[in-house]
Predict the 3D structure of the following.
Amino acid sequence: MKQFAIIGLGRFGSSIATTLYAMGHDVLAIDKDEEQIQDISDYVTHAVQADATDESTLKAVGIRNFDVAVVTVGSDIQSSVLITLLCKELGVKYVLAKAQNELHAKVLYKIGADKVVFPERDMGIRVAHNLVSSNILDYIELDPNYSVVEISAIPLWVGKSLRELDLRVRYGVNVMAIKQQDGNINISPGGDDMIYERDIVVVIGTNEDIDKLEKRAEDSVKE
């Protein structure tokens, strides 16, 4: 079990926090907004209403003990940079930060961020992960062991429910969301939710398990 600190509970941060917790990891969620904290408190290990730009706050929650910090306050560039810097200076081993633009990303890398992502910009853009599978649309590495992947629904999945597919048991991955062809996004879908043609499934898991899923997706296209 790893320890993750998620700082900033917008759609991206909340989805990562709740999914990691569902996978059995220790998750600390931090946000200045009391309502956001109340909404997520039952779905993470600890939820703290606090200003993460305050060094004493990060020390008080024991941020240095966490394996990974995910800084998702991308819309407030100054806060994002300060929080990322503090996390690294306080000893967090791996810091992933969300960036608003290329300049923001450069600054984040300069101050020590291990990984910078553009979740909004990259949404729907095809990026080949190791040129393995044409089904893989986007690949975000959370840390050296865990990643989030967008994968086009393979024919084998179409017309089946998540319960029938049971991707967690078969491949060890958890479904974070389903992006439907009409543009709607189903966040934290349930077992009865169906996969349809041209849907995009967003999953999180270990890199090893995601590699297995990629291989299965590639094979299904050839069949």
